[in-house]
Amino acid sequence: MSTPVEETLVLVKPDGVARQLTGEILRRIEAKGYVIVDLKMVQADRGLLEQHYEEHQGKPFFEPLVEFMLSGPIVAIRLQGNRVIEGFRSLAGTTDPTTAAPGTIRGDLGRDWGLKVAQNLVHGSDSPESSSRELALWF
Ligand code: IDP
Ligand code: MG
């Protein structure tokens, strides 16, 4: 079976950086065999985040989400591999860290902190279109 080599945007969100989980998250990514093509630590600005999360504009968690993403540095990663878009989302686990499966980044390391927005450690692009759009924003 031949599958295309893809790239995806992974972000270690401010909670992951603040909790010093960047290394643990990168370890899981590399242990899976995905290739880190580029990586940088950035303090995002509001304009970048509003574009990044444009699909969520108008939702109740949008403003808390932007504020959360502004709260500290983010590690942005250009990640490469066969089916890496789907594969990283599988490593990350589902959005709500309380119910994300054990074994996933969010399931093992995240929890509900009783906040307006889910602090769930990582972002991963959800489609080839999102991945191209997001990589162009961040790199
Ligand atoms: P994803 O990160 O799993 O792709 P999205 O639906 O794209 O999830 O939402 C973007 C981010 O917004 C989530 O990672 C999470 O931080 C936050 N979020 C999404 N839905 C909710 C919600 O219902 N309540 C609180 N925060 C949410
Ligand atoms: Mg998403």
Structural notes for this entry:
The chain has about 140 residues and is an alpha+beta fold. It has one domain (about 5-139): Alpha-Beta Plaits (2-Layer Sandwich). It is about 40% helix and about 20% strand. A four-stranded antiparallel beta sheet has the order 2-3-1-4, sandwiched between helices. The longest helix has 11 residues, at about 20-30. The model has no long low-confidence stretch (mean pLDDT about 95). It binds inosine-5'-diphosphate (IDP) and magnesium ion.
Essential attributes:
alpha+beta, 139 residues, 4-stranded antiparallel β-sheet, Alpha-Beta Plaits
Overall pLDDT, averaged?
97
How far is the first residue's CA from the last residue's CA?
Answer: 31 Å
Provide the β-strand percentage band. 15-25%
Poorly predicted runs of 5 or more residues: none
Query: What's the Cα radius of gyration?
Result: 14 Å
CATH H-level superfamily: Nucleoside diphosphate kinase-like domain
How many helices? The count is 7
Order of helices and strands: EHHEHHEHHEH
Shape: globular
Q: Class, according to the CATH hierarchy?
A: Alpha Beta
Ligands bound here? inosine-5'-diphosphate, magnesium ion
Q: Give the strand line-up of the largest sheet.
A: 2-3-1-4
Please indicate the count of domains.
Answer: 1
Summarize, please.
With 139 residues, this protein is α+β, with helices and mostly antiparallel strands.
